[in-house]
Write a structure and sequence with these properties.
- The chain has 240 residues and is mostly beta strands.
- It folds into 2 domains: 103 residues, Immunoglobulins (Immunoglobulin-like); 119 residues, SOR catalytic domain (Immunoglobulin-like, Sandwich), CATH 2.60.40.
- Helices cover 0% and strands 48% of the residues.
- It has no helices and 19 strands.
- The strands form 4 sheets. Strands 1, 14, 15, 17, 18 and 19 form a 6-stranded antiparallel beta sheet that branches. Strands 2, 3, 5, 6 and 9 form a 5-stranded mixed beta sheet that branches.
């Protein structure tokens, strides 16, 4: 009897959820925060500002680093530019909560197009708010963006036995994991089995292989308040 061979052909753990593209500040040369340019800087009024997010990855695996990027943009008379050297703070509100928690603070850099970057861990679906408190020359501003988080499956598929097993994180005890199969790379996925995880989120299935060609397998967990619908990597089985 031919033995089965198992291959991991790709990791596509992110949900199919699509998020809108974030606004990108396209600015002329950076504006220094201490002297926002033009003679209007001598007046007593403060210039309007806006926190704008640059493009970054809005879907992340649990516990991976999220890099939130953006600019503080000021409008001085007819000119608009990103502001260098001003402090901004990052706050997070987890989905299902009404509480904002301050995570970090940093300053916009001194590059040609000044920007800020925050790094934090993806704990769960969340809203992130960046706040510029303002200063003697610039009005305060703030803006909110979102990051969606998918679970990890830590999946393994054993040669010979066809045991497809692993552990779902975070905190997924006694909950359902679905097994899906397709018969070709272009075929539709079909759910063929499900099981409940153990005390620590462990799961196990046994899968087979066709007489010719390949079967494709992946795992899925449903969406919740804290996590989007999540998928494991895609594995294949074949006989050798």
């Amino acid at each position: 009897m031919a033995s089965m061979r198992f291959l991991l052909v790709g990791v596509t753990s992110a949900s199919l959820l699509a998020l809108p593209t974030t606004a990108t500040a396209t600015t002329p040369a950076g504006i220094a925060s201490s002297q926002p340019t033009t003679s209007a800087a001598t007046t007593s009024s403060r210039f309007n500002t806006d926190v704008r997010f640059l493009n970054f990855d809005h879907i992340r695996p649990f516990a991976e680093t999220v890099r939130i990027k953006g600019q503080v943009v000021a409008t001085v008379n007819e000119d608009t530019g990103a502001v260098a050297g001003v402090r901004v703070s990052l706050h997070r509100k987890l989905s299902g909560s009404s509480r904002w928690v301050r995570l970090d603070a940093t300053s916009t850099n001194q590059r040609r197009y000044p920007a800020f970057t925050f790094r934090t861990r993806a704990r769960a679906n969340a809203s992130y708010r960046v706040v510029f408190a303002g200063n003697a020359r610039l009005q305060p501003s703030r803006s909110v963006t979102g990051v969606r988080v998918h679970r990890r499956f830590n999946a393994q598929l054993e040669d010979g036995s066809g045991r497809f097993h692993g552990r779902v994180v975070p905190r997924y005890s006694h909950r359902v994991v679905y097994l899906a199969k397709r018969r070709c790379a272009e075929c539709s996925w079909r759910t063929v089995a499900h099981t409940r995880t153990g005390d620590r989120g462990g799961y196990s299935f046994t899968v087979g292989a066709p007489r010719s060609g390949r079967y494709y397998w992946r795992l899925r967990t449903p969406r919740s308040v804290r996590y989007i619908r999540s998928y494991s990597g895609v594995f294949t089985t074949e006989r050798r």
